[in-house]
Amino acid sequence: xxxxxxxxxxxxxxxxxxxxxxxxxxxxxxxxxxxxxxxxxxxxxxxxxxxxxxxxxxxxxxxxxxxxxxxxxxxxxxxxxxxxxxxxxxxxxxxxxxxxxxxxxxxxxxxxxxxxxxxxxxxxxxxxxxxxxxxxxxxxxxxxxxxxxxxxxxxxxxxxxxxxxxxxxxxxxxxxxxxxxxxxxxxxxxxxxxxxxxxxxxxxxxxxxxxxxxxxxxxxxxxxxxxxxxxxxxxxxxxxxxxxxxxxxxxxxxxxxxxxxxxxxxxxxxxxxxxxxxxxxxxxxxxxxxxxxxxxxxxxxxxxxxxxxxxxxxxxxxxxxxxxxxxxxxxxxxxxxxxxxxxxxxxxxxxxxxxxxxxxxxxxxxxxxxxxxxxxxxxxxxxxxxxxxxxxxxxxxxxxxxxxxxxxxxxxxxxxxxxxxxxxxxxxxxxxxxxxxxxxxxxxxxxxxxxxxxxxxxxxxxxxxxxxxxxxxxxxxxxxxxxxxxxxxxxxxxxxxxxxxxxxxxxxxxxxxxxxxxxxxxxxxxxxxxxxxxxxxxxxxxxxxxxxxxxxxxxxxxxxxxxxxxxxxxxxxxxxxxxxxxxxxxxxxxxxxxxxxxxxxxxxxxxxxxxxxxxxxxxxxxxxxxxxxxxxxxxxxxxxxxxxxxxxxxxxx
Length: 653
Ligand code: 6R9
What we know:
The chain is an alpha/beta fold. The protein has two domains: about 5-495, Rossmann fold; about 525-650, 2-Layer Sandwich (GMP Synthetase, Chain A, domain 3), CATH 3.30.300.30. Helices cover about 30% and strands about 25% of the residues. The strands form eight sheets. The protein has an eight-stranded mixed sheet with strand order 12-11-8-6-7-14-15-23, with helices on both faces. Mean pLDDT is about 95; it is low at about 1-15. The protein binds ligand 6R9. The site of ligand 6R9 has 23 residues, from helix 12, strand 24 and strand 25. It holds the Pfam family AMP-binding_C. This is Acetyl-coenzyme A synthetase. Belongs to the ATP-dependent AMP-binding enzyme family. InterPro entries: Ac_CoA_lig, ACAS_N, AMP-bd_C, AMP-bd_C_sf, AMP-binding_CS, AMP-dep_synth/lig_dom, ANL_N_sf.
């Protein structure tokens, strides 16, 4: 085990608190205990049944899984369906056209409501508009939008015409956007003039302009949603307003059925090397598991629930649990554009009260921030509509879990701590509300039909009370199908560490009851506020600055954000005379501009030397000790043992 995983594990205390389901909740729960036995008896039959029950197929499938060429899976391979039809039209056809699909609240307080009938109409228009712009089945569309309904409409319009979307988080820089556009060879970009961040306009279009400035990308058209009304530069012949292109298009559109393995989207995520991986998801299997988990893990009642997932559509949680899961299930949901503390720190709770939110799905980093702001703030609002609370993105420490349960959930709502990844497409490990007795801090049990396990270095399962690596033994419907354009890396990254198993990259432990506890990444991927960042990517940005000779980045434990980025940098001789503080700040800004604000190091320490082994490998483990304020560990393999003393002394200043 690497030190990254063994550190939290060593001080993991035994958890005695357990919350058994309320009997009334359990009796009527959507998920019943029998699901586990059903899936265990015949896993493929179980998934085939879910696929047929939860989705509408244009052509039924005859084969559930084709695993003849592992790790390249085909699920429901000869079936045909349309993702947007499943998320929209069929609800209207079933007589639920008047049900609210989206309650939208903008940061400035403007609101919009879309019923299923209205949302279907908007998506049909967008599908016609994109087709008229030359987008065809199999093409890729880059989406660089804030959390506004047009983001959902764009994604579903792509799905409707068989084009794969590639959503790039609006906080990412022009360079990050360009590299993703190039990798996917996107034809169209959909963006907005901008959005708001804490009451101030925050631009998006300039980043698209910068990304495409050399005129040499594959992009032919940029569709621009007018959102914050700030002035934008315009490239004639390339740029067009959403209002001129989409809103004027015909609302007549018949969805064509595509093969179950039709690419649905590419979503880039940080890997252990600098280059982000384009995770590829396809249609039938992905929708099956997104819908199954959304329904069962959140105890969804589409007729009465008001569901709110606070994730941005730039992340996988926004794909599976804002767009596909909820809409395929015909749910009513809230989408909020802005920050939680604008115009006041009670904004989220005000929204829960205003819309009567019943299911809330958010991240530990948000919960810890709210804890810091104090319980009086949520205490000032009526949160009694809430009935299920979810957590995702990083391990939730028992203290935050207990606060979430007590202060937000009124000691009444079951908490589901859901473990999954961009690669897994949907929730894999989680309690089921009404079924599982929940335990603060643990994601607990693999869902029915999922064969997650914890294994040791040799791939043998660990016993209860032991730690190791999290793996998935058998293919699952929403698994990634490939890394876009890089099948070798796909095999290498996920399927080579352990024979015949999927390697998740997370350390995990089974407690005495056999429940799973997640212990964080075992590779060089950091988790900052639930967002995956690669140390290598930030290091390569730093050494890209003319003043920097070498850089090492570590993720240090942070009370609020889970981890924080800490950088250690050696300057080039030419920059040696510069003021250290000014230079640190310059480098922080440089990373922010290069990758995005979330990647900005909390601290950039300028050092004379980095700790290296004789073979020249930087010992990040030691830097992490310094960054986390620990005594520096075993440094005997260092080429120069004195280096660490100097760095530790500088850091403490
Ligand atoms: C959905 C999502 C995936 C990584 C994953 C793990 C961490 C996510 C977690 C969790 C502990 C949970 N992670 N959920 N760790 N408990 N409930 O976050 O996808 O952005 O790809 O990140 O996040 O380390 O490997 P993604």
